[in-house]
Structures are given as structure tokens and as C-alpha cells.
Design a protein that fits this description.
By secondary structure, the protein is mainly alpha-helical. It has two helices and no strands. It is rod-shaped.
Amino acid sequence: MRSLKTIIKLNRNLLNEIILEKNQIEQNFSELNEKQKKLKKEYEQELELYYNSQFAFAIDNYVSNTQKIINNYQKQKNSMTTLLSNINNKINDQFIELKKYQIIYDKFQKTNKEKNLKETERNNDEINSIKFNNNE
């Protein structure tokens, strides 16, 4: 019985670790998304400001580099999305494993309670029978 409790505890801890990992990746994803939005906004402002000015000759290099950075951010986000999907699958699998052991434990507890209750009833019946026989 003790080993079953330990297995449940270990599974719960593993599930919590996976969830923490997921939260960290989601936070990184959010930060990366904000960086990408900020860069896109700056990029659009720079284009609007300098595209038809005397500095337009220098804008091509800026546009090229900025688009590479934005594409790199997007690749990282896609990679994180795939990773999050895999982690969600891990969480589901781990949760199923945890519930399986919890159900086994609960059934065991219920069976033990019923067994103890029957034992108590049998003892009470025996005691009552002895009392009845002694009173006669």
C-alpha cells in the first residue's frame, strides 16, 4: 500500500515538473511574440518614415536584416508551438498514469473499508451472541 502511495506521489511530482516546463516555454513564447510585435511596429514606422526620403538607399539593407530577424522569431515560435504540443501530450499521458494509480488506490481503500466494516460487524455479532447466551 505504501508503495502505491509513493508511485502516486512520484507521478504527481513528475506531472508538476512537466507543467512547470510548459509554463516556462509559454512565458518564453510570449516574450518572443512581444519582441516580434515590437520589431514589426518599429520596422513599419521606419519604412513609412524613410522609404521616400533621401535615405531610401540605406533602407534596403535594413529591410532585409529586419525581415530575417522577424522570420527567425517566427521559426522559433513555430518550434515552441511544436514543443508545447508535445508537452501537452506528455501532460495528458502523465495525468492518465496518475489517475490510473489513484483509481487503484481508491479501490483498494474502499475494499479495505468494506473488509473492516464486515469484520467489525462479525465481531459485534459474536459479542452480542455471547452476551445473549450468557443472559440465558
